[in-house]
């Protein structure tokens, strides 16, 4: 008899507050999320076991894509294309504006080492002797490269 | 809130007949609002405190002056040459030597063992990396990574001269 009784009880869940909160969240995240400025070229980072963090502020990011094109980016500003000849002036200029600036190099793993060598020579010329190479962390103990 | 049914004493004459069968019709309404509120509050908390995985970095230190010469005893120098093979697309070839010994070719995956072995044998060792300009950048990152694994943290990068490339390429 009691089972029969239970069937009649209609449970109505009022969804309104949930929906309200849902939308509140949506608005919140939409308004607070910051998108990375679009990258001009997709870059596959090489793998390493290094667990040093890339500095978060005062970073000048130099990106090198597969075709060895060079891009630079300061903070959240859009990426701009540059070339090796101009790089020295660029780094000098940025270092003069902000002496605390650090250089992070984001190079595609299949780019030529030659470009990197040239960049390192430029870095040495501009006295930017410490910089970081951005890599993807791999967990395995093995070498990141599969031959 | 929680409905408490207090049955009236069925003493009334007409009243009893008028009463609808109350207990059967009680609709249980569970107020979901606080539950949902807390759930979303937690959601916000976790979403805000989540730190997304940041890319990692390898730190490179270059010597301050390209002209500056650091005197290192020759026996402490381990030269590593990485060359791109003649038909591109093949595996890179890696050679190494201590001081002026003849170059030995090695498999890439064995390099870490060699680095740590050399480092144990001589903690003053300095690696001199000479990488072919045509080689891929990932090899440079990987060799530095291997060096760091072997705790051989003193290394320098030097350009690979065509003559040096030809020398090991002939092996």
Q: Strands of the largest sheet of chain B, in order across it?
A: 4-3-2-5-6
Q: Largest interface, with Cβ-Cβ < 8 Å?
A: A-B, 58 and 53 residues
Please tally the helical runs of chain A, counting DSSP H or I stretches of 4 or more residues: 4
Tally of separate domains of chain A: 2
Q: Roughly how many Å apart are the termini of chain B?
A: 88 Å
Total number of helices of chain B:
6
Instruction: Return the string of H and E elements of chain A.
Output: HHEEEEEHEHE
* Gross geometry of chain A: elongated
The residue ranges of chain A in which pLDDT falls below 50 over 5 or more consecutive positions are none
Mean pLDDT of chain B: 75
Largest sheet of chain A: 6 strands, mixed
Annotation, overall tally of beta strands of chain A: 7
Structural class of chain B: alpha/beta
Oligomeric form:
heterodimer
Give the terminus-to-terminus CA distance of chain A: 73 Å
CATH architecture term of the largest domain in chain A: 2-Layer Sandwich
Q: Taking strands numbered 1, 2, ... along the chain, how are they ordered across the largest sheet of chain A?
A: 1-7-6-3-4-5
Q: What is the number of beta strands of chain B? A: 6
What does this structure look like?
The complex is a heterodimer of chains A (147) and B (171). Chain A is an alpha/beta fold and 147 residues long. Chain A has two domains: 31 residues; 91 residues, 2-Layer Sandwich (Nucleotidyltransferase, domain 5). Chain A has four helices and seven strands, in the order ααβββββαβαβ. In chain A, strands 1-7-6-3-4-5 form a six-stranded mixed β-sheet, covered by helices on one side. Chain A is elongated and about 80 Å long. The relative contact order of chain A is 0.18. The mean pLDDT of chain A is 79. Chain B has 171 residues and is of the alpha/beta class. Chain B has a five-stranded mixed β-sheet, with helices on both faces. In chain B, helix 5 links the parallel strand 5 and strand 6. In chain B, helix 4 crosses helix 5. The longest helix of chain B has 17 residues. In chain B, 25% of the residues are buried. Chains A and B meet through helix 2, strand 1, strand 2, helix 4 and strand 7 of A and helix 3, strand 1 and helix 5 of B.
